[in-house]
Amino acid sequence: MRVGLFIPCYIDQFYPRVGIATLRLLEHFHAGDVEFPAAQICCGQPMANAGCVADARPAAERFVATFRPYDYVVAPSGSCVAMVRHHYQGLVADEAARAQVQAKTFELCEFLTDVLQIEPPRGQFPRRVGLHQSCHGLRELRLGSDSELNVAPFNKVQRLLANLEGVEFARLERPDECCGFGGSFAVDEEGVSCMMGRDRIADHERAGAEVLAAGDMSCLMHLDGLIRRERRPLRVLHVAELLAEALGLTISD
């Protein structure tokens, strides 16, 4: 099968290791022919979130046209995938093409667990890990259970990491709380955003986390900024980086 690799703007510009780790994982788990189409651009989420629908429309059209030829589209970002899957209605003129691309676009962890249906891999990561669950991944993609719904607990990301030798998961008091980033919210409401981020970091520290991991680099970018500025003893890793490191896969910028 052909897999189109979509790398979000901020990962492409600031965190290329996450994109490379994603590619290495897809190759490691035999996902087929993985391609990075050079024609890809932003998915349009920043514009749509800001209410600039007219500006988001060309990005959505370009995304659908670029990735329509592939069997699957995979991205290391719950928020970008949620944008494509749940918010492209009305942005793409060809509704059949839009629906086709929406149905085959997956976040990395759900692609590994739900599409490839891999067994949780064995590797080594002897650290206590605090998992941050992003709002989009949790509440729109259903990568895990949340406290608003009375459902049996599940967590696809944790399940993916569960067989790593030495790994422990920090037990957070509020495991599904927002980090406070929210794109432009972090700019418009800087004080509130930072307070929310500090609350999340404090929860991880109380639980003894050594590594703070998540499937969305946007959340981690916000939290890592606070951690570095306040010199907190926490390492921040995207799940793709963590898993690649645990499996001994080579990543270079």
TrEMBL record:
GO terms for molecular function: oxidoreductase activity. Transmembrane segments: none annotated. One of its GO terms (cellular component) is cytosol. Residues 3-84, 129-224 form the Cysteine-rich domain. This is Lactate utilization protein A. The lineage of its organism: Bacteria, Pseudomonadati, Planctomycetota, Planctomycetia, Pirellulales.
